[in-house]
Amino acid sequence: MLQKILLLVFLLLSISSYTQSNWQEFKKLSSPKKKWVLLHPFKAKQALIVSREALRVSDSIRVSPLLDGDYSGGKVDAFRHAFWMALLQQEIGKKAARSLGRVHEKENYQTFKKQQLEDGVVPDEISSEMDLFNNEIGLSLSEEGNNLPKSGLIYRVINAIDQGKLKIIKKDEKGNFLTCDDKIISKDSLKGKWKNNKCLVNSNYNQ
Known about the structure:
Layout: H1 2-16, H2 20-28, H3 31-39, H4 44-62, H5 75-92, H6 94-113, H7 125-139, H8 150-162, E1 167-169, H9 187-190, E2 200-202
Antiparallel strand pairs: 1-2
Helix pairs in contact: 3-6, 4-5, 5-6, 5-7, 5-8, 6-7
Organism: Tenacibaculum lutimaris
Pfam families: DUF6973
Domain DUF6973: 35-165
């Protein structure tokens, strides 16, 4: 009981140092991410800054000719996760970055159960597998405290994608999801299902 009380006091003292805007951001978080913030109170603010920057860069990559423009299961999706992890690791370390990535996938499962959208689609198991795989590749592309410029990280991630080191979800040229034996998966068959027969392929796959 004493340990729980001391932990609660520590967490309350940590949260009390947040600004009003930080507190508003905290209240909007899912329960898994709130738990992560409470366990990493001194890294949470920097993680938020890095996450916003990763999204900003990914949005720029999305409208550029560098990748496929696909934010949901495509190369831009793969880029977003790998770049996010690479940048996070430089700022808050591998262990904290990896745990935040895993927490994000727990949040996606909650989103699935509520049948809400993430990046325009309802999350599923294969998307989570893709994200976790690409997170690990991202962690391999940077080092804590190395402070490689963002342009260097962007180059590393795009180069890894071009070499097929990341994973994307197999689609045809019209954007239809495909099974591993190239059969189109109907949208109706995917509704309300966490597990499905989508197929992960290497990131240098072209329709």
